[in-house]
Amino acid sequence: MDEEYDAIVLGTGLKECILSGMLSVSGKKVLHIDRNKYYGGESASITPLEELFEKFNAPPPDETYGRGRDWNVDLIPKFLMANGLLVKLLIHTGVTRYLEFKSVEGSYVYKGGKISKVPVDQKEALASDLMGLFEKRRFRNFLIYVQDFDEQDARTYKGFDPTTDKMSKIYNNFGLDKNTQDFTGHALALYLDDSYLEQPAIQTINRIKLYSDSLARYGKSPYLYPMYGLGELPQGFARLSAIYGGTYMLDKPIDEIVLGEDGKVVGVRSGNEIAKCKQVYCDPSYVPDRVRRKGKVIRCICLLDHPIANTKDALSTQIIIPQKQVGRNSDIYVSLVSYTHQVAPKGWFIAMVSTTVETEDPESEIKPGLELLGPIRQKFVSVTDYFEPIDDGSQSQIFISESYDATTHFETTCLDVLKIYKRGTDEDFDFSKVKVELGEEEQ
Amino acid sequence: MATNRSGASQRPNGAPQTKVCQFKLVLLGESAVGKSSLVLRFVKGQFHEYQESTIGAAFLTQTVCLDDTTVKFEIWDTAGQERYHSLAPMYYRGAQAAIVVYDITNQDTFGRAKNWVKELQRQASPSIVIALAGNKSDLAAKRMVEFDEAQAYADENGLLFMETSAKTAMNVNDIFLAIANKLPKSEGAGGGSAAGARRLADGEQPRSSACCK
Known about the structure:
The complex is a heterodimer of chains A (443) and B (213). Chain A is of the alpha/beta class and 443 residues long. Helices cover 28% and strands 24% of the residues of chain A. Chain A has 3 domains: 4-42 and 231-291 and 388-433, FAD/NAD(P)-binding domain (3-Layer(bba) Sandwich), CATH 3.50.50.60; 47-105 and 295-386, 2-Layer Sandwich (Guanine Nucleotide Dissociation Inhibitor, domain 2); 118-218, Guanine Nucleotide Dissociation Inhibitor, domain 1 (Orthogonal Bundle). In chain B, strands 1, 2, 3, 4, 5, 6 and 7 form a 7-stranded mixed β-sheet that branches. The two termini of chain B are 25 Å apart. Chain B: Its EC number is 3.6.5.2. Chain B: Belongs to the small GTPase superfamily. Rab family.
């Protein structure tokens, strides 16, 4: 450990592992440390099952749960958008070679107490029970507009200026009613709340395009999920970092981030050892005095021995409960994965209900989500603060990631990573630095 | 080289094409025992006296031809993550074969090899085929680990065993060939992917199971 590094990365959550990989690929000498003896931090998948029960102070699972080692339970629920940033990062860095994925089978939206499939193309829109006949036609026209929209080609703007016109104006011009706006903004554009309505429409249009481009890639739904759980993702990027020379130490307590006289970081101390460095990259848990609370998220892990009703017995699915449907300001998300992803023994399902906390009684906030699940064999609730850094790190050269938010996918995760990389290195990540011939498969 | 990439060629009496089976093979062992050198010798036929610590290889592939089967190895190197005991579970995941390497001139590395075997028995699939390689056999003059001692240990634990030299190429192809022979090659054997799982790459097909025609 007593060496000098360009960068020391603390914590092996997904964001830190992607950063570590990018820094190593760019030729930086990286030391990557975690205080835990396992990879993944908050983005780990917990295994065996006994460990999960212990983590939540529950009595050990009985034999009906099968072999504990067959379980890999995520702590934070997220899916990958098939055409999203994380998939691009995986493919460009070659990390995809360590992983396998399955498409999520269906995407549903909650309306008036029941769930309906999210309509994504013109055909589905016409068949959907979410809208009346005339509304369907209006929605279809809106979808055609979005599909034909090309940011580079002003002719496709068709009388609007999406860079300045608000999204609410576009909705009104297509005559979409509040219900349709609701599932469009929340189930297709995947906004957490309604503030997007007053923002330039271009963001929303691009989000809907991301949704439909993702859907076009593999069918069924726009989402992908990795075999063996989300915890495989940080491990894959950690391996990338190691392959490019990064040094890994797990189970290593961090006692101090050492600053020089000018307030810049000079090293990291563990016991009597100090590793010198020019920069530190870390998650908020390593620098409690350099972050502030941004909000709270509630996440409830539910173990089920059956699929969710009205989803055609899908082995994986997402259900979005738009805020307005249940009188809230932020959406409730339900995600479901199962034995088909090797995260549970045969016959078992793992559901997660989550949302941004708005009241003093977060558990009752997620009730509408829990009620969709049917009988729950075991429930684990966690309410966690999420943090953001108090500065951009340019003074201290300590670059801190934000905690994982309540969004259901990795887009904000990747944007944070790319921003941090740029702050730390003053340049955008150059994907061409990944040497293509290395470890290339001859097929 | 004993390996052969054109295994699926003509065969007498009109027999069908050979079967191609793909297996994940992982390397384990202390730093500097020659894990990467063994792979480099096997895959590229090269040897570098001053091989740097592993940088750059995600995994390499090489095929071995048996009578009626072509065995394709996907070979994973530790990328140095063994140094501070920080190998990720992903490394062992789905591995159907492992080579545990020690240096015959260094008794400590043999002790550590035994620990790696235990780790594999704990973490990896129960049906994994493990080979023990006593590397640097060209340095027999400085030998610290006796052949018989290692052979006895291997026999007790059901491991394949050979002394190898990445430098002279002695037994390098042979140990991979021995593993290929021992791996189950029946239809659907081995780990491989679950049905419907895919790798992400432009235009890539869902990955086939470990054994297919």
